[in-house]
Automatic annotation (TrEMBL):
Residues 453-523 form the Transglutaminase-like domain. It comes from Natrinema saccharevitans. It holds the Pfam family DUF4129. Residues 601-615 have a biased composition (Polar residues). Residues 344-368, 540-623 are annotated as: Disordered. The lineage of its organism: Archaea, Methanobacteriati, Methanobacteriota, Stenosarchaea group, Halobacteria. The chain crosses the membrane at residues 27-45, 57-75, 82-109, 129-149, 156-173, 179-197, 209-227. Keywords: Membrane, Transmembrane, Transmembrane helix. The keyword Ribonucleoprotein does not apply. This is Transglutaminase. The keyword Transmembrane helix applies. Gene3D superfamilies: 3.10.620.30.
Length: 769
């Protein structure tokens, strides 16, 4: 049975025909709205692929679309807007409660929500939020529901608004890439375009308007880089050369990249005076995206308080002096107190790592008091798995697309390990013994940890530490990725010179009642040999920046720039194979140092939802030649230029500027000549426009001769008489239009008269309207 149905959409009604089908323009408009929705949902999906919750997101989006389809014929737009607002409220209430805010406080947390929103809109990526997954699930339903509801009701232009706003917001956070942005932009323009075509019965009269919209929206979508945010350049090690290991691991305050081939700089970065050798930590990262590390949480100004380890412990004091411009503050973990003038402009991350607000200058120094906890392997084996929720929630994350093959391989490696500590030792030993150390690697696509474990044979510290961190997490052991420097070269009993070639990354695993314990799966011997060779070469080449006054005469030995020679957990046995070992032999038994969780003190875990500051883009290991990169930029510039030209042309046509310009040019230039009669007629049209400027336009009821006669009779005594040459142009026009035509000479004479009048009597400047 055929039926007729219609739904009210403002001033017009969208009718469904008796066959239950709609016109092609409607389907295309609906398809464009879906494409717009897919553009920003894909960005949210990418976030949930990292932090978890992609299935929930898909379910929420599907339910929102279904609800919008059903309710489109049942409720009015105002009611639909209220439903969307309610859904957003419920979603963000869930976000707040997941972040640890009490339900009663959620209802009055408007200031916090506004603060989070403003922070995100000024360039803070979603992946920096501690509760990124719940925020994403709370954000998605409202724009999806409202956009599709309006589209089903035929209000295509209005349906673009909520979806476009959602995409724009994700562009501002930096999460929406070029592809998603342009796809959403084009889809939005297409929705408006096909909606207009349907409303006008398929007319393409509005094509110029749509072209203008396209150009404007593309321009806006590509202009988001001007939105205020954090610096988009290296801000950690200011002097880290592009392509160096330092530039890769410390390329941003909140991100640590995974690159391809890297180099080592032999130049001195800082010196340390300390009673104990250590690794000098500069960054802690907890969220793995598959191809980089992200530090979540919000920085706070250093107020003289840093959390102490759960089990207490002895302390060691270091004095660090910058030898070059530094955007980092190296410390021995776990710092519990900072001293010096630079601490007045120091922030502390959620993980207890300090960082200067402005770069340290050569000669700047500060003191650090660090808690050194040295539990024995027996103590770590008995630590158990009673992890605090804040630890297990933050440090067990793995990307959702991690393959089962990765999990299977980890299970095999740790098959004989009964405790988290034994698993960590087994993984550390496996990577040390089966993977080679090399700075010359190609960055794999996809999940770097997975590719390194299953496919690659060599890599440098970034690959070793990343893979071990993810392997531990697969086994349920909280772990995090850490960057910094190894001990450096000892030049005195308590003085160490640290160079760029000492840049390093390692792993920290969490043990209840002890905190964070360091593991380093990178083969120490090979790494030390490579670094020693680089330093020897630098000295041989006369690189003055490779030494300080104290280190210049100190011989290089195999331990320089290598592993920390300090204490580590040991009960006199190798926990992996049971053989007797010397506790301080750096070639045996895994080296570890207890770096205790700053979150052990609740003051380091914020009580509310946490957003964080956006970091600059990391080096992506782009190995393309400069010519290829230039070609890519040129292609993009050409594409943008074409869009701009199309937009300008369409805008000019839409505003009538093209027609006005054509008429303006036509007054002074006759153009190409052809048929004499046509030329005579065009000459009179030019004359008519000249006279309209000085006197008045020709009326519809006036003939050409009557028009000229009326102008002559209306001339005042003070005005010059009508030029007699006008008669020649009029006669040529009348013969061409009503008589037997004109010859080439008469047509050329009429053209010449108008040319002369345009130059002599009626200049554009000062003309009288």
């Amino acid at each position: 049975m055929s039926t007729d149905a219609s739904s009210r959409t403002g001033e017009r009604t969208v009718a469904i025909d008796t066959d239950g089908t709609v016109d092609a323009a409607r389907w295309l408009a609906l398809g464009c709205v879906l494409a717009l929705t897919a553009s920003y949902v894909s960005v949210l999906y990418g976030v949930t692929q990292v932090v978890g919750g992609s299935r929930s997101l898909v379910a929420i989006v599907g339910l929102s679309l279904a609800a919008a389809t059903v309710l489109a014929g049942l409720i009015r737009p105002r009611t639909a807007a209220a439903v969307a607002a309610t859904g957003a409220g419920v979603g963000f209430a869930y976000y707040f409660t997941s972040a640890g805010v009490e339900l009663g406080v959620v209802l009055t947390a408007t200031d916090q929500l506004v603060s989070d929103t403003v922070a995100l809109a000024t360039g803070l990526p979603l992946l920096r939020m501690v509760q990124a997954g719940t925020w994403t699930l709370g954000f998605a339903p409202a724009p999806v529901f409202l956009s599709w509801y309006l589209a089903v009701r035929g209000r295509y232009a209005a349906s673009v608004v909520p979806g476009g706003a959602a995409l724009c917001f994700l562009v501002l956070t930096g999460d929406a890439g070029t592809l998603a942005t342009l796809t959403g932009t084009l889809a939005a323009v297409g929705a408006v375009a096909f909606g207009e075509l349907r409303r006008r019965g398929g007319s393409i009269a509005q094509a110029d308007l749509l072209a203008v919209l396209l150009a404007v929206t593309v321009a806006l979508s590509l202009s988001v880089s001007v939105v205020p945010g954090e610096p988009r350049g290296p801000t950690h090690l200011i002097q880290g050369e592009p392509g160096s290991l330092e530039a890769t691991i410390d390329s941003a305050p909140q991100r640590s990249g995974i690159s391809g081939q890297v180099d080592l700089s032999p130049e001195v970065r800082f010196t340390v005076e300390s009673d104990e050798p250590s690794y000098w930590r500069t960054g802690v990262y907890d969220r793995f995206t598959g191809d980089e590390w992200v530090r979540t949480g919000q920085d706070r100004r250093y107020d003289g308080q840093l959390a102490r380890p759960p089990g207490g412990g002895d302390t060691v004091t270091q004095t660090v002096t910058a030898e070059t411009e530094l955007g980092i503050m190296p410390v021995a973990a776990q710092p519990v107190d900072l001293g010096g003038e630079v601490t007045r402009r120091t922030t502390v991350s959620r993980h207890g790592q300090p960082r200067p607000e402005t770069p340290l200058q050569p000669g700047d120094s500060y003191t650090v008091e660090s808690a050194i906890v040295d539990p024995s392997p027996a103590a770590l084996r008995s630590a158990g798995t009673d992890y605090p929720d804040r630890i297990s929630d933050a440090y067990l994350q793995t990307p959702e697309d991690t393959s089962s093959a990765f999990d299977d391989r980890v299970d095999v490696i740790t098959a004989d390990a009964d405790t988290p500590y034994d698993k960590a030792v087994a993984i550390e030993d496996y990577l040390e013994s089966t993977k080679e150390y090399s700075l010359e690697v190609s960055q794999p696509s996809g999940n770097v940890a997975e590719k390194y474990l299953l496919e690659m044979e060599a890599g440098y510290c970034v690959y070793f530490a990343t893979t071990m961190t993810q392997m531990l997490r697969e086994e349920g052991v909280p772990a995090r990725y850490v960057t910094g420097y190894t001990t450096g070269q000892r030049v005195d009993d308590d003085t160490y010179v640290v160079r760029g070639l000492d840049a390093h990354s390692w792993v920290e695993a969490y043990f209840p009642d002890h905190g964070w314990v360091r593991f380093d799966p990178t083969p120490g011997g090979t790494r030390s040999d490579v670094h020693t060779d680089r330093l020897r070469d630098a000295r041989a080449n006369g690189n003055e920046d490779a030494d300080t006054d104290e280190s210049a005469d100190v011989p290089i030995d195999g331990n320089d720039s290598g592993r920390d020679e300090g204490p580590r957990p040991s009960d006199g046995t190798d926990p992996f194979d049971g053989n007797e070992t010397e506790p301080n032999d750096p070639s045996d038994a895994p080296e570890q140092r207890n770096d205790t969780d700053p979150g052990g003190n609740a003051t380091n875990d914020t009580d509310g939802p946490e957003t964080s500051f956006n970091g600059p883009t990391v080096d992506d290991g782009d190995d393309r030649s400069w010519l290829e990169r230039l070609s890519a930029v040129a292609r993009e510039s050409v594409a943008l230029g074409v869009v701009a030209l199309v937009g300008l042309a369409a805008g000019a046509r839409r505003t009538g500027a093209v027609a006005r310009l054509r008429r303006e040019v036509g007054v002074y230039w006759h153009g190409s000549r052809g048929d004499p009669d046509s030329d005579a007629e065009r000459a009179f049209e030019r004359l008519e426009r000249l006279l309209a400027r000085q006197y008045r336009p020709r009326r519809r009821s006036e003939s050409a001769r009557a028009y000229l006669t009326a102008l002559s009779e209306a001339a005042d005594e003070g005005e010059p008489p009508t030029d007699p040459r006008l008669e020649r142009v009029l006669e040529a026009y009348e013969r061409a239009t009503y008589g037997g035509g004109v010859d080439r000479a008469d047509a050329d004479a009429a053209i010449a008269v108008v040319d002369d009048l345009a130059r002599e009597r009626l200049p554009v400047i000062g003309r009288r309207e």
